[in-house]
Amino acid sequence: MKAMLFLLAALLPVMRAQPEQETASQEPASPSVDSVDGEDTHFQWKSALLESGFLLAVQHSTRMVQAKTRAELGGPFWADYFNSVSTIHTWNDSNSVLTNYIGHPILGAVTGYIQVFNDPIGRRLEFDLSSKRYWQSRLKAMAWTAAYSTQFEIGPISEASIGNVGKHPPTMAVVDLVVTPVGGLAVMMLEDYVDARFISRWERNKSIHLARFYRIAFNPSRSLCNLLRLKHPAYRDTRPL
């Protein structure tokens, strides 16, 4: 959660300076599989990787202010790294319930939305449990989150390699590898539901400031991910303000 606040503070000047580029000609919520208003529908790998890389840098930057992280930067890199990742044999780590079961799912939703927003079709899909396309989109997002989370926990640029989390058990466990993608999917779908069923109705005939408040307050993960792609946090691909 500290990383999310750091991200918000870092991008707030950009958010204020950039006008909301939302126009009435944007694509409706049920686009064609072949094209989206003439836009290339291939997944946008470059921007997805850049956004994920920036989020990763923010997370590790916030970790570097911790004395326990800096204390483990010395020593043999590979030996300490393998010692750290080899301790994953329990479910619970030493983190709080708030961190594991609230913070990690929110982070999982943020990284999941990175995948969604870089899919020209997926980002225009609204909550619909009867839609095969919606399920495919959000399951792809969960897979992206799982890959990101695994890298952050035990990958080459991870907690295990930078700061040797796991070297002193039980600081590395299975909980983060499972709860982040699975909980992230649940948070994404909840935010999709709230946005489609409630926020879209509440914001009608309201001032733009109140509409933005609804969007940001009740869709925090989507709002944070909008900042990663240099959009106003209240931005919607299908609903201009």
Textual characterization of the structure:
- This protein is elongated.
- The chain has one domain (44-228).
- It is 59% helix and 0% strand.
- The chain has helices spanning 2-17, 45-63, 67-70, 77-85, 97-117, 132-154, 174-202, 208-218, 220-228.
SSE topology:
Elements lengths: L1 H16 L27 H19 L3 H4 L6 H9 L11 H21 L14 H23 L19 H29 L5 H11 L1 H9 L13
Descriptive labels:
241 residues; mainly alpha
Query: What proportion of the residues is helical, as a percent range?
Result: 55-70%
Q: What structural category arises from helix and sheet content?
A: mainly alpha
Instruction: Tell me, rounded to a whole number, the average pLDDT.
Output: 87
The helix count comes to 9
Whole-number count of domains: 1
Beta-strand share of residues: under 5%
Instruction: Give the helices and strands as they follow along the chain.
Output: HHHHHHHHH
Q: Indicate the radius of gyration in whole angstroms.
A: 19 Å
Straight-line N-to-C gap: 28 Å
C-alpha geometry: elongated
Count of distinct strands: 0
The parts where pLDDT drops under 50 for at least 5 residues are 8-32
Main sheet: strands, sense, barrel? none
